[in-house]
Amino acid sequence: MRYDEKMTNYANSDALVDAAWLAAHLDDASVKILDASWHLPPTGRDGRAEYAQAHIPGAGYFDIDALSDRSSSLPHMLPTPAAFSTGVGALGIGSGDHVVVYDAEGLFSAPRVWWMFRIFGHDSVSVLAGGLRAWRAAGHPVTADVRVPAPQAFEAGFRPKMVRTLADMQANLASAAEQVLDARAEARFTGAEPEFRPGLRSGHIPGSVNLPFPNLVDPATGSFLSADGLRAAFDAAGVDPAKPIATSCGSGVTACILGLGLHLIGRDDWAVYDGSWTEWGGHPETAVET
To answer: Is the pTM of this model over 0.85?
Structure first.
C-alpha cells in the first residue's frame, strides 16, 4: 500500500504516496523522486533556489518553466513529447521507473507534473501527500546535496484527450459539451480582484464554475480531503457528475489539482486547459464574464 487509505477511500489511491512509504523506498533504484516546487511570481519565492537549500535525499528538480514550450509567450505550456523525453531522461528517469513528485507547499505545483507524466503516457507516477511539509513533519531528513543522475532512456507518448486548447474552449462556448471548472480564488474568478499578470482582463470564461483549489485540501495535512470530502466539494460547486470537465486556473498549474482530485474519486472524464486564464484573459477576442 502506497498510501494510508483510512478515512480516504480513494478510487485511485496509487496516485498518492505518503511519507512513510517514500521513506521506505528511498534506496529503491526504480523509484525516482522529483521536487516540482513552483511559486506564483508575486510571492518572490524561487523553487529551484529552495530545492538547492533543502530537498528529499535523492530528489531531482523538475522545472516546469524550463521543461515547457519555450516558443510560446504563455508560461510553462506543454513541451513536445520529444522535448519531454529528453528532459526527463536527463533527470535520470527511465520508462520503467516509478516517479514520485512533491512540492514545498504540500499540494500546489506537484499535480501539474503528475499530469504532465500522464499526458505523455507514463502512468507510474504519484504525488507525495502533504509534500515536503509532511515529509519534514514526520521527522524524515532533507539535504542540500544535489545528485548528478546518469541519463536514462525515456519514451514519451501523447494523449491529446487530456488537454484543451484555446480553439477547444471557444468551441465549447457554443456546444457546452464540457463543464469548465476554474481553480482560481473566488475574487479573481468574479473579477473583484485584478489579475497580477499584466495585460489580463478580470473575470472568467462564460458559463464556467468556480472551485478554488484550497477547497479540496485538508489544511491539517496539506493533502487532499477524503473521497467523501472531495465529492462534497465538487457537489457544492455545482459540478455535474455526468458531464465531462475542462479544468482551468491562472496558468494551468492549480487546474491540475482539480484534475487529480477528480482522478482520486474515479473520474477521468476531464482535461486541463493548458493556457488557462493567462491565454483566455489576454486574448482580445475572447468573451469574458464577471
So the answer is: yes
